[in-house]
Amino acid sequence: MYTIYANNDDESASNLSSIKFRLFLQISSNFINKHHAQLASSVASLSDATMRLLLIRHGETVDNVAGVYAGSRDSALTAHGVLQAGRLAAHLAEHVDVDHLFSSDLQRAATTAQAILDAQKRANEVKLVVTPELREKDFGSGEGVKFGLAFEFEGEETPEAMRKRCDRFLGEHLGPLLHEDSIVCIVAHGILLGVLYKALCARLSHVTIAPGAQARPRPASTPFHPSWSNTGYLEAVITALPDTKDRFQMRVDKVNSVEHTKTLKRTRGGIGSAKFDAKQKTMDSFFTPAPKKPKCKEDDIVSK
């Protein structure tokens, strides 16, 4: 009798252990499936994130007109440069809602960036981040020297030093934004933007140039080196590679886009090339066309 009861107890214990084990497996499976689904959803979300990036050069400066090396020199915009910035700002306001705006701390870039911000519908929601990391190359003793008089200068910044600045900016400012849908504008300088573009490409897994992105097609064997006119911009789209969260690809859609300045004419008499004087005329009045004068009647015309 005792043996029979003992066997039944053993069998019951065994069945109970089996039930507990199966229950444990079921709970574990549910837990794993749930978190796997969450992870998959998270990766999918990251994969769907799209950054629209605009690399923008500042408006025309007095040093651009003078034809001198101006890197760390805090060169001011010309009256024409202010008009360029206004055209760019209006163009961007019509086509994009900027989420993040970065600029060099030199006034030619910061003034251009401020014009972009002021024209945005959500200007009060966007912060302009100004940083020395985006400054132009420092030409050392070459600052203010006429183009062509010399090509090497004492104390000029090395390409390696510029690359380090760009890498710091990408790591601290642009990198954290790659996992969100956003439109990012970076306003800086011609040489610096070229270095920044290369530093960005080095961090990406794949880069393509969209057909028609360049005004002048280049041979397939020729390396791609973008350039920037005053207020020209490069526009690109950055997305995560499928099923990944830390590998990204970029498609360049526009290179040196200056559509906004095609109809802009320089003011004659040297005024357009002169330094913009805010005391004489407000920036808003530069951006607002002057009222047209009424046409004279034939009777009012006096022949000479």
Automatic annotation (TrEMBL):
<feature type="region of interest" description="Disordered">
    <location>
        <begin position="285"/>
        <end position="304"/>
    </location>
</feature>
<dbReference type="InterPro" id="IPR001345">
    <property type="entry name" value="PG/BPGM_mutase_AS"/>
</dbReference>
<dbReference type="GO" id="GO:0005829">
    <property type="term" value="C:cytosol"/>
</dbReference>
<dbReference type="Pfam" id="PF00300">
    <property type="entry name" value="His_Phos_1"/>
</dbReference>
<feature type="binding site">
    <location>
        <begin position="57"/>
        <end position="64"/>
    </location>
    <ligand>
        <name>substrate</name>
    </ligand>
</feature>
<dbReference type="InterPro" id="IPR013078">
    <property type="entry name" value="His_Pase_superF_clade-1"/>
</dbReference>
<dbReference type="GO" id="GO:0045820">
    <property type="term" value="P:negative regulation of glycolytic process"/>
</dbReference>
<keyword id="KW-0378">Hydrolase</keyword>
<dbReference type="InterPro" id="IPR051695">
    <property type="entry name" value="Phosphoglycerate_Mutase"/>
</dbReference>
<feature type="active site" description="Tele-phosphohistidine intermediate">
    <location>
        <position position="58"/>
    </location>
</feature>
<dbReference type="GO" id="GO:0004331">
    <property type="term" value="F:fructose-2,6-bisphosphate 2-phosphatase activity"/>
</dbReference>
<feature type="active site" description="Proton donor/acceptor">
    <location>
        <position position="136"/>
    </location>
</feature>
<dbReference type="InterPro" id="IPR029033">
    <property type="entry name" value="His_PPase_superfam"/>
</dbReference>
<protein>
    <recommendedName>
        <fullName>Phosphoglycerate mutase</fullName>
    </recommendedName>
</protein>
<feature type="binding site">
    <location>
        <position position="108"/>
    </location>
    <ligand>
        <name>substrate</name>
    </ligand>
</feature>
<dbReference type="GO" id="GO:0043456">
    <property type="term" value="P:regulation of pentose-phosphate shunt"/>
</dbReference>
